[in-house]
Amino acid sequence: MTRANSQQRQQLARDIRHQFSDRATTRFLRAMPTFKVVTDLPEHLRELLDNLQASEGTASSRKR
Predict the structure, then answer these.
(1) Is the model's pTM score more than 0.85?
(2) Crossing angle of helices 23-31/3-21, nearest 10°?
(3) Count of domains in the chain?
């Protein structure tokens, strides 16, 4: 890693820390709705997801 690249990464890290500690960011995040994970999917959606997973599996095995 070059010295300039290292300095850019350090500056980026400082900028990100600053953004997360900013009051406006905190206010914005607190105003967002809370999302929860749905564990009980309707059967037709579960079947669609299973079909998608199966087709992704066959597609990746064909690439090898």
Answers:
(1) no
(2) 60
(3) 1
